[in-house]
Every structure is written in C-alpha cells, then in structure tokens.
Amino acid sequence: MSGEAVLDRRGFILAHTRLLPAPHAPEISLHVAEEATELWQKTEDELATIGLPPPFWAFAWAGGQALARYILDHPEFVRGRRVLDFASGSGLVAIAAAKAGAAQVEACDIDAFAAEAMQLNAAVNDVSITARLDDLIGRDEGWEVICAGDVCYERAMAESVVAWLSGLVARGAQVLIGDPGRSYLPKDRLVEVATYQVPVTRSLEDAEIKKSTVWALSADGG
C-alpha cells in the first residue's frame, strides 16, 4: 500500500465517522458512522468504481460487541496469551483483548479500510495491536485464542471459517464466536458461554437491541 493510499483511507474514515463509545463496551471508543445508510450508499455509489467493499468497519456489530464485553469482563481468558481477532472490522474485539492484557493481539481483515480503521481505533484507545490486511483462513500461526464476531451471515463463509477454526481447536486453541443469531451459525458445534442484550444500529439490523451470544467452538461438536 502506498503512503498516499493510506492517507486517503484515513481521511475518508475521519471524514465520515464520529468517535463514539461502543454501546455495549463503552470502555472502548470507535470511529463509527452516525448515518449508516448514508455511508453505505456512498461506498456503493461514489466509490464503486474503485472496488470499495461495504463499510463493515464503520459499525459496532452485535456479535463483536458481545465478544468485547465478555473479554473485558473476563480478562483471564486472554491475559498473557496470543490472540487473533478474525474479520476484525473496526478492531473492537482486538482492542478489548489488548485492554484485558493479552500478550500479543493481531486483527485481520481483507478490507484495507478496515485495516486502517483498526489502527486508528487502537490509537485512540491507547493500545497496541497488529493490523493485518490478509485472509488467514486455512493458516495456523500458533494463536492461543481466536475470536470471530458476526461471521455466519453467508453459508459459504460460515462453513469455511468454522472448518478452519475447528482445526485450530483440535490442536488446542480456544475459539470464541460472537453471534446475534445469524442464519448459518452451526449451533451443534457450539457451547454457550454468555448472552447479552446488545444495542445495535436499527437501519442495519432492523432492531435496536439484538440478543447476542458468545459461543465456544467445541472440538467434538458439543
């Protein structure tokens, strides 16, 4: 990525978001869109010609908020450990892990705007994370804890991610999935850890509150 491109992404994020506390994890502030539909339309219309993906990074999604809350309330789960926040978006869960005392936190996403947003958000929360612009599905770099929020909204993605994460669990990693009841959540493979009533963006979720659960992925299907 060129320095100019990075500055353009940073400028876009700062111009179209406001720094606000995450509703269910107010210890953490994020650059988020106040008008969800306006930003979504902008990325579809004005920036479609350069292939900009939807701005998932500009919102505190329900599953991520549930994961962040659980980690902040149970810091022993990540303290001193290597943590990966998969499909991190805003970096919310990664920031929670860093605040909770993880030894090393990586946050990955395939969207360059998300990677920039993660770094901006980590800086304003005074924590250090490693933002990775990468698709890590199928790879194992020795993470001890892997968190994945809101990754089960499409069948192909859900199946691919869960198969990969299952392999990591089989070799001893711990995997937490945060989810508000997405269509392709494999509940037969999961153990409920905690459930929250999470404030969300109505224009995106068709609700103001979503029941969101933190699940542990089981090695033996339950």
Give the helix/strand layout.
Layout: H1 3-16, E1 18-22, E2 25-32, H2 36-45, H3 62-73, E3 82-86, H4 92-99, E4 104-109, H5 112-124, E5 130-133, E6 145-149, H6 155-170, E7 174-179, E8 190-199, H7 202-205, E9 209-217
Parallel strand pairs: 3-4, 3-6, 4-5, 6-7
Antiparallel strand pairs: 1-2, 7-9, 8-9
Helix pairs in contact: 1-5, 3-4
Strand content: 25-35%
Strand arrangement within the widest β-sheet reads: 5-4-3-6-7-9-8
Low-pLDDT windows of residues? 1-6
User: Based on helices, strands and strand pairing, what is the structural class?
Assistant: alpha/beta
State the CATH topology: Rossmann fold
Task: Give a structural overview.
The chain is an alpha/beta fold and 222 residues long. It has one domain: 3-Layer(aba) Sandwich (Rossmann fold). 35% of the residues lie in helices and 26% in strands. It is built from seven helices and nine strands; from the N terminus they run αββααβαβαββαββαβ. Helix 4 links the parallel strand 3 (82-86) and strand 4 (104-109). Helix 1 (3-16) packs across helix 5 (112-124) and helix 3 runs parallel beside helix 4 (92-99). The relative contact order is 0.15.
